[in-house]
Write a structure and sequence with these properties.
5 strands; alpha/beta; 5 helices
Length: about 190
């Protein structure tokens, strides 16, 4: 369990990696003291396999490439639940055999956490050079991350953050996309 990692060596990445921030936040919220190992990703998994670290905290979209090639039965996934102090920040998620067949038996699941990512921008005036750059950024993000105007890869662009207001340029893009999705499709018949 997570509590079994108290006082252990945990690879949480370097101070510039998202796993570092998440690791400190989660482990401190759980009241766990640990020895920090500044390795992330594949290096963190290798450190655990070689006994340099007792555990690794990995962050990313499933399936993680760092774990996809793992074949060792000596490694296992630790169930991770949000500590009470972080319950409003993380949502529960499940990892299954389909994600990591070498680490989990068929039908087996392990609880994990999902995180949110927020892209925050300054609300520049419409038509200003900075506002145009923000609009181009928002448009590019939507086109790359959700090219078909539909939910994909678990991304919810319409989610709200309490106390925050969506940037006008992002709101405009969402309204245009919603209008395209709700437009009636013309049916044609061949004679």
């Amino acid at each position: 369990t997570l509590q079994d990692l108290a006082g252990k060596r945990i690879a949480i990445g370097t101070s510039v990696e998202p796993s570092y921030i998440t690791g400190h936040f989660l482990l401190e919220a759980a009241g766990l003291e640990f020895e920090e190992v500044p390795l992330g990703g594949a290096a963190a998994v290798k450190a655990v396999a070689e006994g340099v670290a007792d555990a690794a905290l990995l962050l990313g979209e499933e399936p993680l490439p760092e774990l996809s090639g793992v074949k060792s039965r000596n490694l296992h996934l630790v169930p991770l639940q949000a500590p009470v102090a972080a319950a409003d920040v993380y949502a529960p998620a499940l990892i299954s055999h389909d994600d990591y067949p070498a680490l989990l038996k068929k039908g087996e699941t392990v609880e994990s956490l999902s995180t949110a990512l927020i892209v925050a921008v300054f609300e520049w005036p419409r038509g200003s050079p900075q506002g145009n750059v923000t609009a181009a950024l928002a448009d590019g993000l939507y086109r790359v991350l959700q090219p078909n105007d539909s939910q994909s890869a678990g991304i919810n662009f319409t989610a709200t953050v309490p106390g925050w207001q969506r940037a006008r340029v992002a709101d405009d893009i969402l309204k245009k996309r919603a209008a395209r999705l709700t437009k009636p499709h013309l049916a044609t018949t061949e004679n």
